[in-house]
Amino acid sequence: MAGSNTSKYDVIVIGGGHNGLVNAAYLARAGKKVLVLERRHVLGGAACTEEVFPGFKFSVCSYVVSLLRPEIIRDLDLPRHGLEILPLDGTFTPMPSGDYLWRVNDHGKTHREIARHSRVDAEAYDEFGKAMQAMCRFVKPILSMVPPDPNTLNPRELMKLLFIGRRFQGMSSYDKYNQVQLMTMSAIDFLDQWFETDVLKATMSASGIIGTFLGVRSPGTAYVLLHHYMGEIDGAFRAWGFARGGTGAISNAIGDAAREAGVEIRTQSAIAKIIVEDGKAKGVVLANGDEIYADTISSSVDPRLTFNKFIEADHLPADFLEDINRFKYRGSSGKVNMALDALPNFKCMPGPGAHLRGAISISPSVEYMERAYDDAKYGNFSRRPYIDMVIPSLTDPSVAPPGKHVLSCFVQYAPYKLRAGLNWDDQKEAFGDTVINTIAEYAPNIKDIILHRQVVTPLDLEREWGLSEGNIFQGELSLEQLFFLRPAPGYARFRTPIRNLYMCGSATHPGGGIMGAPGRLAALEILKDKGAA
Hints:
The chain folds into 3 domains: 8-85 and 245-328 and 476-530, FAD/NAD(P)-binding domain; 109-236, no CATH class; 329-465. 35% of the residues lie in helices and 19% in strands. It has 17 helices and 20 strands.
């Protein structure tokens, strides 16, 4: 449509990532007329599936599902819209010594495997699991809660703070002690209290650094470990899985549920600016010049795009802009996706087998993990990186031609800001080579079986997927950027200083991962303010 488009919507949702789609679906189900505008040609944002090479479908960015809220699956009836989660069975860690650690979903097998390394750790592992479940139970209601404003005198807000305080008070002293430690300690210091086996601690600590520019010994990473521990599939904590058809299948299922509720979705519709008049958001201007108006604008893109790119600074309070400009992104990860002619053959466990069906973790020791971070601190990608690999084609043959496979590698560290004189466009292929060379130390046949490879750097994540500085969570999950501080103090309740403009992406509570909670909570707040139609 050329020129000005005067059609009026109740809500325009900026960004067709999974949070934007969840937000739109809930609003439409309440009777609102909703338009979703997505810049790319496919839905899902970073939760997308693309056929990068003929016959090979890649979950290009996000690659496993663990945090998708059960209430969203239920409310939107996502299985009816094609969502099928296939379990991801266990984590296999090859070691340079020729040994390995292979934890699976079968409790007895995992107990025996850990006992092979340390009998003490095998006993502690059960206790650790129970303690983490207690922590998850404490945090779980907070994930479904709009963060209270600690500065308010509003009785409803104070009741929320009281609720959290009472829940904490109701825990055993042992659980309280663990909770305080989790909020303050490093992943390794926390794990050191439980375990002695180096490879076990290294592999478990990896969950504490995902999406953060921190090392396994950095304070605060124990909480990130808990955030990833809370994966729920069919109500089971710590359950991870693949979506059949790739991660994009999750976004497509949510998109279908949204369309069924009446949402209009337009792809290849880039936003140029948000129209603000008299302190109120009135609509958007597209890159092609079209103007579209709505009573409410809900932005699922990150704060930098929303407030620095789409809105002129003079519409925003100076102190709010300062807080937004202080919000840390610091992307630290990249992806290497490969189309393979055969399966990788690991020296420590040769041949095909169940060990290839779960996550394969290159995290042989705590020192290895911390050294990978040392490289990043000085502006280099890790020369020996932490790599989390999955081969989804073993569980879901639909993503590769018969007999071929897809290998997805999540890599840390790939810092967005490289040292002086280096840039990602020049370093991209060297980064890809480093990842493949690292895998080859454990699976020497890898170089012979690669048909195609796709390297995704933090700069690619920013340019192509709109993730500022390549942060996969739209901002670090560090303690000073959580709960009522996300994305800025006083603005964690999905509202912004501009009336009728809301935030609903991963930069809001409760954060990143394919969770959908920010989109749902923001929709409920919009409906509270605007009332259902």
